[in-house]
Each structure stands twice: as C-alpha cells, then as structure tokens.
Design brief:
Heat Shock Protein 90, 5 strands, 31% helix, 28% strand, globular, Histidine kinase/HSP90-like ATPase domain-containing protein, HATPase_C_sf
C-alpha cells in the first residue's frame, strides 16, 4: 500500500463553504491527492451543491457524487483527461446509475 497522508483540508473547507456536503476524508495516499481534488471540484462545478463521498479501501480510491440534471457548466476539459494520461487504465470514471464516479486503483 502506498504511503498515506492527507493535506486536502483547505480545498475541502472551500468546497464545503460553497455547498458541497462531504464527510471527513479518510486517509488519502499522497499520490492520489490530485485525483480527489479534481473529482471533488468537478462534483461541485457540474452537479452543484450536494453530497460527495470519498472511499478508500485496499484496492482503490473512489469519489462519488449524485448527478443532478444536466450540467450547463463546462470546464476546459483537461482535468480528467490529464489524470487519465497520468494514471492510464488505473483511472476509471463515468456515470454509474444516478452517480458520477471517479475511481483510481492502487499500483
């Protein structure tokens, strides 16, 4: 298992103030901070205020949020594609039922 550490507190606090409902984060591997930051920021940007969850187990890290209608906000489109280039097939993301899920498998 990779070295673990969490230092996403400033981002999480800003997202919470903007309306994202998020339980305390589990311990996040340092190499996965960027994935969590991108997924949580996208959750608020595209789904609006609501609940997001972060799960870490022995196999993967997952960020999930409920999809609320169609997003009219568009980003530059480089965040997830940049992560995909970095993590390759270890990163999967997309719609799963009523949720948007970003999952990265541990190396």
């Amino acid at each position: 298992m990779p070295d673990r550490g969490t230092d996403l507190s400033e981002l999480v606090e800003r997202l919470r103030l903007a309306g994202l409902v998020l339980d305390d984060l589990p311990e996040i591997p340092k190499w996965a901070h960027r994935v969590v930051a991108e997924a949580l920021t996208n959750a608020l940007r595209h789904a609006g205020p609501g609940k997001a969850t972060v799960v870490v187990n022995d196999v993967y890290l997952e960020v999930r949020n409920r999809i609320r209608g169609l997003s009219t906000r568009r980003g530059a489109g480089y965040g997830l594609s940049s992560l995909e280039r970095h993590f390759g097939s270890r990163l999967v993301y997309g719609r799963r039922g009523l949720h948007w899920v970003v999952r990265v498998y541990f190396p």
